[in-house]
Design a protein that fits this description.
The protein has helices at residues 11-14, 100-119, 147-159, 171-176, and strands at residues 9-10, 20-28, 34-36, 38-39, 53-56, 62-69, 78-81, 93-98, 123-128, 133-139, 165-170, 194-200, 204-207, 222-229, 234-241. The chain has 244 residues and is α+β, with helices and mostly antiparallel strands. The protein folds into two domains: 9-98, Elongation Factor Tu (Ef-tu), domain 3, CATH 2.40.30; 103-241, Threonyl-tRNA Synthetase, Chain A, domain 2 (2-Layer Sandwich). The strands form four sheets. Strands 3-2-8-5-6-7 form a six-stranded antiparallel sheet. Strand 12 and strand 13 (204-207) form a beta hairpin. The longest helix has 20 residues, at 100-119. The protein is elongated.
């Protein structure tokens, strides 16, 4: 489908705790993806899965959203409905509502992975976020990792209940501080003139566009499930909630 150009207002960037919003339908693309003028749904990216939930149409029908992704070109947030779901038409006003428990667990896990980054002083080569289990891969070179020590250090940062926030820097400032980029395989997006940093004061500061908690205490107790050998230098550290 051609003829439209919109950058969906990403409400989750300013407030990760928003659960629903009203929006206008801009388009339904050739693949059936729904483009809105604003949304609380996070699109897949940075190891974090896209949000799921419900879209309530103008006539009261409910359409389930199976995932949310980034589209091509100007489609920065695309809501992908389940097969056979009713579709809105451009110009309709709809309400979108997150599967909140799933999103909140992603926020807990994503914030926890920043704490893991803070206690494991190696470059990150990959990562994956899930509702109950997440992981980061580290290039440890000739180093070693201690599962119990990592668990203890993360839980200490959790119980200290540090504030979590975000701020923006321009590309030039990021270029002048390359140590901020911990990920070795993926670089933060450039070209918009600014980059979003996740900041846990005196704990972690690095580019990240995901959704996070307001305080580390919300993560809750966690443990390192296992540390896997993924190559000569690569180690995968798996994190689970302690009550799992």
């Amino acid at each position: 489908m051609a003829g439209y150009k919109v950058i969906t207002e990403e409400l989750f960037r300013a407030d990760s705790y928003l659960r629903e919003c009203e929006a206008s339908v801009v388009a339904v693309n050739d693949l059936g993806g729904i483009i809105l003028d604003r949304s609380v749904f996070y699109p897949t990216g940075g190891g974090q899965p896209g949000d799921t939930g419900s879209m309530f149409l103008a006539d009261g029908r409910e359409s389930r959203i199976a995932t949310t992704v980034k589209g091509d070109g100007d489609e920065n947030v695309v809501h992908v409905p389940e097969t056979g779901a009713a579709l809105p038409v451009p110009g309709d006003t709809v309400t979108v509502r997150l599967d909140w428990d799933r999103r909140y667990n992603h926020m807990r896990m994503h914030t926890c992975l920043h704490l893991l980054c803070a206690v494991v002083p190696y470059g990150v080569t990959g990562g994956k976020i899930g509702e109950a289990r997440s992981s980061l891969d580290f290039d440890i070179s000739d180093g070693s990792l201690d599962k119990e020590a990592i668990t203890e250090a993360i839980n200490k940062l959790v119980t200290e209940n540090h504030p979590v926030g975000a701020r923006w820097v321009d590309d030039a400032e990021l270029d002048a501080n390359p140590e901020l980029v911990r990920t070795m395989s993926v670089q933060p997006p450039r070209g918009s003139g600014k980059v979003r940093l996740l900041e846990i004061p005196k704990v972690d500061l690095q580019p990240c566009g995901g959704t996070h908690l307001a305080h580390t205490g919300e993560v809750g107790p966690v443990r390192v499930g296992k540390i896997e050998n993924k190559g000569k230098r690569n180690r995968r550290v798996n994190i689970v909630f302690a009550d799992n």
